Amino acid sequence: MSEPDTAWSTLVSAQDLAAALGREDLIVLDTRHSLAEPEAGEAAYHAAHIPGAFYAHLDRELSDHHKAHAGRHPWPDAQDFTAALGRWGVTAAHQVVVYDAADGALAAARLWFMLRTLGHERVAVLDGGMQRWQALDLPVQSQVPVARPAPPYPATFDTSRLLDAHQVQAHLDAGGVLLDARAAERFRGDIEPIDRVAGHVPGARSRPYALSMQEGRWRPASELAREFAALLQGRDPREVVAMCGSGVTACHLLLALEHAGLEGARLFTGSWSGWIDDPQRPVARGD
User: Fold this and answer.
1) This model's pTM is above 0.90
2) Is 251 a known active-site residue?
3) Which CATH code, of 3.40.1350.10, 3.40.250.10, 3.20.20.140, 3.90.1150.10, is assigned to 11-135?
4) Topology adopted by domain 159-275
5) Beta bridge partners of 97
6) Given 244, 253, 262, 267, which residue is catalytic?
7) What is the pLDDT of residues 29-78, one digit of tens each?
8) Beta strands across the sheet bearing 123-126
């Protein structure tokens, strides 16, 4: 399988993806998910999806709910995720495109970061997701494609980019940056619709993932680069750790950083739900 002249590693437009459908080296993965209705995304996939796309479920393939004390969406073991990639036919030679309903937060960016953490460079999120695709009246299908299974993807996670609560505390103690991708009112502790405790990790900074979007699509890289530069204040992006409620929308923040040309940021896998698993850990409220 020869590599094409173009390779997408952050975002891809609906028009460019439509033109690439049918390419031998292309695999498309649908990750639509609803936290309120966990099976709604898969139902939407069966009703209509981008031609040739396979479905990746946030709770089944992108999390491991057998793990305790690891947040609401525990990071899976590499052997389980690489086996899933093999079932979809993903190899190191493939260009992968992932999409969800709209902005990439549930859960396209999560799958993007999982692949990048395996070392797979040619993976991109569909800008605007299924909403953009359908707004342009691009083709859909309901038939589930038949995969060409491959061996488990031959890689393991770069664990240096995956931090637990103890490592996050050490990161903060050393002066590192922790960016929280949740909405500002959840960061302040004004509301908490999901987790049992409201607030944020002391020392974290608020950077809602939605700030990276405008009218359902990603903002220009140059704009995001200026905003992140103000947050980082000269620090290397590898000194940045992203978090959210459970380690899913935080990956949207990691994608935003890379879209802005800032590579190497890391993930607090358990995020807020993992932090509060230990009631002895401190909680901050307000700005």
Assistant:
1) yes
2) no
3) 3.40.250.10
4) Oxidized Rhodanese; domain 1 (3.40.250)
5) 28, 124
6) 244
7) 999 999 999 999 999 999 999 999 999 999 999 999 999 999 999 999 99
8) 11-12, 123-126, 95-99, 26-30, 54-55
